[in-house]
Fold this protein.
Amino acid sequence: TQLLEQSPQFLSIQEGENLTVYCNSSSVFSSLQWYRQEPGEGPVLLVTVVTGGEVKKLKRLTFQFGDARKDSSLHITAAQPGDTGLYLCAGDFNFGNEKLTFGTGTRLTIIP
Amino acid sequence: KAGVTQTPRYLIKTRGQQVTLSCSPISGHRSVSWYQQTPGQGLQFLFEYFSETQRNKGNFPGRFSGRQFSNSRSEMNVSTLELGDSALYLCASSLSAGTSGIYEQYFGPGTRLTVT
């Protein structure tokens, strides 16, 4: 059974600070997605990474895929209250079976 | 292009009853997945349908079932409801990964089910 562990589970920081959340597995992903979910809504896709070592930027968010494609990180620069939410990573382990495994989530709170 | 829609958004049922939830995927998407989300267990995969066939299934009891219609719309049914079935039920649609190998899911807003 493939597992996706996210850390930290909870994070509360002041507006303007930087932060990094992590997504780790013992298995190789064919691709990995990051989602953000706000209370009472469905997760919204932020980015997909596919190639080992890949780095993608979305405004103040930087996503990195590990060289071995077993881990990923999300770095937020100068966090804002609008970044508050549940961040989920999801990996496709099955190389064609088209099934995502979701991580345990990081609940981020940005304090104004 | 319209997103994934789910109906109803909120539902209150009594133990022992059954419930049917509906999901309309993004136009052109043929894969529909269902998830249960609770504070304690996170996002748990229920099942996935592609072209009217169940292609993947999670570890849920047989009280949870689903189907997909020829227009890709999907329904899930929960029979003999239990208190522990209270959760946010999410539907996600996707295109087939095809030759790109990239499989992305787009979620609806969810149906909040409360069992009393």
